[in-house]
What we know:
The chain contains eleven helices and 20 strands. The chain is of the alpha+beta class and 419 residues long. The protein has a domain of 238 residues: FAD/NAD(P)-binding domain. Helix 1 runs parallel beside helix 4 and helix 1 packs parallel to helix 9. Pfam families: FAD_binding_3.
Amino acid sequence: IQQQDAAEDIVIAGAGLAGLAVALGLHRKGVRSVVLESSPERRTSGFAFFTWTNAFRALDALGVGDKMRGRHLQLQGLRVMTSSTGEIAREMDLRVNGKLGPHEVRCVQRNVLLQALEEELPPGTVRYSSKIVSIDDQDGAKILHIADGSTLRAKVLIGCDGINSVVAKWLGLAKPSESGRTATRGYAKYPEGHGFEPKILQFVGEGFRAGLVPWSDTDVYWFFTWSPAPSPDANGKDDDAVDRSAAAMKQFVLTKMTGAKVSPEVLEAVERSEMSDVLAAPLRFRSPLSLLFASISKGNVCVAGDALHPTTPDLAQGACTALEDGVVLARCLGDAIVGAGSGEQKERVVAALRRYAGIRRWRSAQVIAVSYAVGFVQESDHSVVSFVRDMLLSGVLAKTLLMMPDYDCDTYEVHHITM
């Protein structure tokens, strides 16, 4: 992107899950795009994420579903434990039939999926070290100013540039809100085998929410979310402060878990863990109400993934809905471009992005709102909330986990992304 007049028809900002899914979906339809990624190389943060039924439907549409199935265990069940007592609050089979067929969930390594998506794209599609710093409008095209001083002219701009999206800001979307909660995560390696069942083990209550899940016979992923105390201690430091080393963060998690009734094998997994390169991160979300009226698309610009619907992780749907976005957007945009005559492409693209926004608006707001509510109830140590959760809501909350994946992004757009 060195010369001033460099131009591309479709530019995607961000080579995360949403960006690569859009690019691959377009490629499957014979439509070329360029992906600008701010990082110098493929992203590795995050370790792993839950890939539910809806995400596998999206991955199958993109042609990489079986690659992920071959490398990650299918999880058979969910066991929810009450942190205050160590008792099982709920057991659930994760292979039951939903409205659209049997459910499927695996814990998938983020870097493995990103690599699989990128490998399916033509060489040179992803341009690293290409951070967009500002956007100008010129005769309907978007002039993208890159951090290295170069510019790129784009006929269509798709923002998949994450929670701090430059494109979302340009569209005027509401700034993500703080949830008042923080998350950390890690993974443990057991060269001789870990011995955990292929199940999600989750702990709720006592002011935190934690979980452990195997992604293979030798690897285990865990997460821990909590609400840092607002008041500092006598030394002026917040006891729950997050600006700590990996060792200190690990000790913080172990202390919190040890004070509750978390099983010894889970404590051991945390003890032997490699910590994420993001030691602790505040959980943010975009107001679901604001999304119902926001400009998700404007002319030849739109957003997808975390740039559209940053959400708390309590339904484990952030990555899954990003993949849904990618399939739906590629279908809408690809069909508009492939079927367009020479003079009508611009209008068809605008209509396609508007159609995509209409399809994804309610789904995005729903996932954010339900996830936030589930996280509040599961993490709370308030006695009344805890009682209602443990006695009445555990079944409802568990079933909500299966309600959101019972969705097929392809049903909105015919049936498969093909050339």
